[in-house]
Design a protein that fits this description.
Layout lengths: L2 E6 L3 H12 L4 E4 L4 H6 L5 E2 L1 H9 L4 H6 L1 E3 L1 E6 L2 E6 H4 L5 E3 L2 H14 L3 E3 L2 E7 L7 E6 L15 E10 L17 E17 L8 E5 L2 E7 L4 E8 L10 H12 L11 E16 L2 E2 L2 E3 L5 E2 L7 H22 L3 H4 L1 H23 L7 H16 L1 H12 L13
Parallel strand pairs: 1-2, 1-11, 2-8, 5-13, 11-18
Antiparallel strand pairs: 3-7, 4-7, 5-6, 9-10, 10-11, 12-15, 12-16, 13-14, 14-15, 16-19, 17-18
Bound molecules: flavin-adenine dinucleotide.
The site of flavin-adenine dinucleotide (FAD) has 33 residues, from helix 1, strand 9 and helix 8.
Length: about 400
């Protein structure tokens, strides 16, 4: 064996798993098709549930997050021209979220792995995963550099990396999931009839907390990535194109959708990135096959409205880490045998929450006025009822984690 755990993907799931395993003396090799610089500069998620922030701290990679991230104690829902705050602190016994970019988390994990002499191989594309059932788990891979990261150059010699266990942390498009025979996996998928037009803005935050707005024109989200970089989104048609959105149109539409009776809080700045993100729900069952375990986006995708994508990836990794420690220390696979069952239970709850937030806050094709009234009534109920607000708050900050413990020795 070349290593104990072969990890495909150096996103948050793969890197965190490697980092946690190293602390328990378990060896891993991480392969990623993209360059380190490309992964570290791609801005994606930015909301960390409190258990994620706590794990980063307790595992020694939370220092920069605590210095540069911001703790939010609530979010605002804005509809029918009025804003309503959901107070996490009060509704969830003092819990909160941390706003800190996924790419910053990745930078911190990369720095920690590099400092510890960890084996992370960027620009190394896994082409196939074999032998996970009864042979020797093997990652077939080839090295870059690739001329185009999205359409990787199909050339170069294929090498093999053998391991005892494969962690498929390679996102939706990676090869790991395909190592589970089609007949043995069920994939659940839902496409939404809208997309998010996202911008990155150089400038100060528009508000102390995130604003989720439902307007007749569609959804808008005012978020942040740092004190100087802001993230804002507008619901658009999935076939829309960034060229249709000059800066003036973006600001006008954001002001319109976010404006309340006290005015628009949107603070304009220099837009330095624009992109359209499709919205989809996806779950693969099971998440394990022989010695292969899928984690993060390789197994499930959520629409970003509930801010659950990266958090769910971390929750998978926590269970997988615990199971692998038990396996390599004692030889028992009791926890690993339940990996899929435990992770899917959380993944489906996150799907439900993300689907519900998405359905409540977006305009559907046809602009049915009846539906808008029902959505406003639901928001009115959620913000007016302590039970409704608590339900949103406890899902947003993160449902309790289920991390199985090792069976007591008999
Ligand atoms: C554009 C975009 C915006 C998003 N915005 C938000 C948001 O605002 N809020 C939110 O909560 N979530 C958001 N998400 C989702 C969130 O970023 C993901 O849930 C999170 O990245 C999951 O982490 P992961 O490690 O499982 O997968 P990833 O971060 O996707 O990492 C997978 C890694 O595997 C690598 N890989 C793929 N194929 C191969 C191969 N063949 N060989 C080797 N390596 C391979 C990839 O290069 C990648 O680095 C967004 C996602 C995208 C794509």
């Amino acid at each position: 064996m070349d290593t104990q755990v072969g990890i495909v993907g150096a996103g948050p799931a793969g890197l965190l798993l490697s980092h946690l395993l190293a602390a328990d003396g378990i060896e891993s090799v991480v392969l990623d098709a993209r360059s380190r610089a490309s992964i570290e500069t791609t801005v994606r998620a930015g909301v960390l549930e409190d258990h994620v922030a706590e794990l980063l701290r307790s595992s020694g990679v939370g220092e920069r997050m605590d210095a540069e991230g911001s703790v939010h104690h609530g979010v605002e829902l804005r509809f029918a021209g009025r804003g309503h705050r959901i107070d996490f602190n009060e509704l969830t016994e003092g819990r909160s979220i941390v706003l800190y970019g996924q790419h910053e988390v990745v930078k911190d994990l990369n720095a920690a792995r590099t400092a510890a002499g960890g084996d992370v191989r960027w620009e190394t594309e896994t082409t196939q995963v074999t032998g996970v059932l009864d042979g020797t788990p093997t990652l077939h891979h080839r090295s870059g550099p690739f001329t185009d990261e999205l359409r990787m150059q199909r050339s170069g010699d294929v090498s093999e990396l053998t391991c005892e266990v494969v962690a498929g942390c390679d996102g939706y498009w990676g090869p790991s999931r395909r190592a589970i025979p089609e007949a043995l996996r069920t994939e659940y998928e839902r496409q939404y009839p809208f997309a998010w037009f996202g911008i990155l803005v150089e400038g100060p935050p528009s508000s102390d907390e995130l604003i989720y707005a439902l307007h007749d024109n569609g959804f808008a989200l005012v978020s942040t990535r740092s004190p100087t970089v802001q993230r804002m989104y507008l619901q658009v048609d999935p076939d829309d194109h960034v060229d249709n959105w000059p800066d003036e149109r973006i600001w006008e539409e954001l002001h319109t959708r976010v404006r309340s009776e006290t005015g628009s809080d949107v603070v304009e700045g220099r837009i330095f990135d624009k992109g359209i993100i499709g919205m989809r729900s996806f779950v693969c069952e099971p998440m394990q096959y022989g010695n292969l375990y899928l984690a993060g986006d390789a197994a499930h995708i959520v629409p970003p409205t509930g801010a659950k994508g990266m958090n769910l990836a971390v929750a998978d990794v926590r269970v997988l880490h615990r199971g692998l420690v038990e396996r390599f220390r004692t030889g028992s696979t009791d926890i690993l045998d339940r990996y899929s069952e435990v992770c899917l239970r959380r993944a489906w709850k996150a799907q439900r929450f993300s689907w519900w937030m998405t359905s409540m806050l977006h305009r559907f094709p046809g602009n049915d006025p009846f539906q808008l009234r029902v959505q406003q009534a639901e928001l009115d109920y959620i913000t007016g009822s302590r039970a409704g607000s608590t339900s949103l708050a406890e899902n947003y900050v993160g449902l309790p984690l289920e991390i199985p413990s090792a069976a007591p020795a008999t």
